[in-house]
Design brief:
Two copies of one chain form a homodimer.
Chain A lengths: L5 E7 L3 E8 L2 E2 L3 E4 L5 H16 L4 E8 L1 E4 L4 E5 L9 H9 L3 E5 H9 L1 E2 L2 E2 L4 E6 L3 E7 L2 E2 L33 H5 L1 H14 L4 H9 L4 H9 L3 H25 L3 E5 L7 H14 L9 E4 L6 H17 L5
Parallel strand pairs in A: 1-5, 5-8, 11-14, 14-15
Antiparallel strand pairs in A: 1-2, 2-3, 2-4, 6-7, 9-10, 11-12, 12-13
Helix pairs in contact in A: 1-2, 3-10, 5-6, 5-7, 5-8, 7-8, 8-9
């Protein structure tokens, strides 16, 4: 491809679909649509219509799609999904046929990690682990400047890493498993921590949200913490410390250049990542991770759609045999 | 290099040094020497003398060395070591000067994983995780057919992965950390499990070892288990189940083709790996690891020295710009 050919990135979330054009490494303003979760056919029709709308009749070189799913990258088969109606769907083939252009589909955390490893369209970090903390916890891995997907494309399930099992091995099979990082440090846990803190401290800013609204959740804790409420900050810090155990594990295993923490909860910034960093430093074996930066993801809410577009771009290049 | 040039592999352990010649991908019978741990200088002198002895005056193309150490691969600096007197030693430079040939030094589990990914001198597995269970627990990672070392060469510290932390985050900084895989499933833990089992079952084969010898350890448990003692087999299986949690984590993260379990304790074979496999299957997210084989390492006690020789071979090839 030439660098100014048009590619489109699509980030499919449980709530909204984000679609944006990329040309010459520059991402356009994303089009946002509420995710049509009524059926598999309806969701696919929505993706085709949105891509067509964003392309606006211009020649399109490729499409990249990020999904909250277990994806076989090579074949583009979506095996299973969280919160969207895609299971055992050969999405890559279906979209390529309907759109008439090369299409690549991948896990959303994997493409977000690809975005995080780039500055604009330039690769900036060759070895990076991204942990996305949203409702659940996902992970993306970049090794030697490329997405690492494992033998079948299902790698990077960092949230399902066990960090606090008890003696009942094996526990009953259910996911997220008790003791997994996701069960301890995901957004739904912050919801519970926020409620607890608000009940215990009714005079705090967070407590007043509960009194006024009758409910309080993780996003309230993040907002109140950023506004200076110490009770809310303590709840966010608790989540951050637990997350730090997962960060330590990833450093002991990968010794990466960067561990980036993204996802919705990461809008708390250093209030979350600071405590995670402190704990990680305690648990990393001396001599390991000496060059690792632990940081808030820079790519922000557009990480998914940007990463999907970069995926389309890099795969086209690879197919054309250009240097990566 | 031509394929029949002579390379020498050196595996430095806390107890013995193993040195062997490799020519045309075939490894010769290793020379074994008790490790000279009296000083850094003495150990280096021993390595130089042993390599010279094995070379027997023939032209030598390269030397590969595996060490129980945190190693900066690119520079060949040995940062810190377990059980041998090497800390902050530029071993690669020192050996290359003393021997007059290109020398490569790496972590012992990393080179063992390289051996495990090969059949003879042919790459057989592109994506493999090796967990070595000896006195401690080490790890080696092969991605895309090459050793994965991370940003500074210190990757693969699988034993220090936390799998069972309690609420006291962070715990006091000491290694192995309580709750780490090494603290739960290493050889020293099998020593304790064996003692416990022998005391509780004095009439078992393992119990009789304790009565007769006044002491019993992990190797006795492995031997008795292989001879059919159910008490000993239960102790080995307990270790295997704990190990299975670590295996599950590595599969959720890497989705590899192979997880190989090596190290001294792996001589228990399926008595150890069977329970690990059962537990891992419970804890791996459905859809992940569908192609992963969990097996006893095939490379046996010569994994280290074979991997060190393969390292020398592959690095020479890489330096000469040959296809890897």
């Amino acid at each position: 491809m030439t660098s100014d050919e048009l590619v489109i990135g699509v980030d499919v979330g449980g709530t909204k679909v984000s679609i944006a054009a990329m040309r010459g490494g520059r991402l356009g303003e994303p089009l946002l649509r509420p995710t049509d979760r009524s059926s598999t056919a309806a969701l696919i029709a929505q993706l085709v219509a949105s891509v067509t709308e964003v392309a606006g009749g211009e020649p399109l070189a490729a499409v990249g799609v990020g999904l909250p799913s277990v994806v076989e990258f090579e074949t583009g088969l979506v095996r299973s999904s969280t919160n969207i109606p895609l299971a055992d769907v050969p999405l890559r083939t279906v979209l390529a046929q309907r759109l008439g252009v090369p299409t690549f589909v991948d896990n959303d955390a994997t493409v977000a990690a690809l975005a995080e490893a780039h500055e604009g369209a330039q690769l900036a970090t060759r070895c990076l682990v991204m942990i996305t903390v949203g409702t659940g916890i996902g992970g993306g891995i970049v090794i030697d400047g490329r997405s690492y997907r494992g033998a079948t494309g299902a790698a990077g399930e960092v949230g399902h890493m066990l960090v606090a099992i008890d003696e009942s091995i094996p526990a009953p099979s259910r996911f997220p498993q008790p003791g997994s990082l996701e069960s301890l440090a995901a957004g739904h846990v912050l919801d519970a921590l926020a409620r607890e803190a608000a009940l215990a401290h009714p005079d705090s800013a967070l407590g007043r949200v509960l009194v006024l609204r009758g409910a309080v959740g993780g996003p309230d804790a993040v907002q109140a913490a950023m506004d200076g409420d110490e009770v809310a900050a303590a709840a966010v810090a608790t989540l951050g410390r637990r997350l730090g155990v997962g960060v330590a594990n990833m450093i002991n295993i990968f010794d990466p250049q960067v561990v980036a923490i993204g996802g919705g909860v990461s809008s708390a910034g250093e209030l979350l990542v600071g405590p995670a960093r402190d704990v990680a430093r305690e648990y990393v074996l001396p001599g390991v991770g000496t060059a690792t930066e632990i940081r808030v993801a820079r790519s922000g809410p557009q990480a998914g759609v940007r990463g999907a577009a970069l995926l389309a771009r890099s795969e086209l290049k690879r197919q054309n045999g250009e240097a990566r």
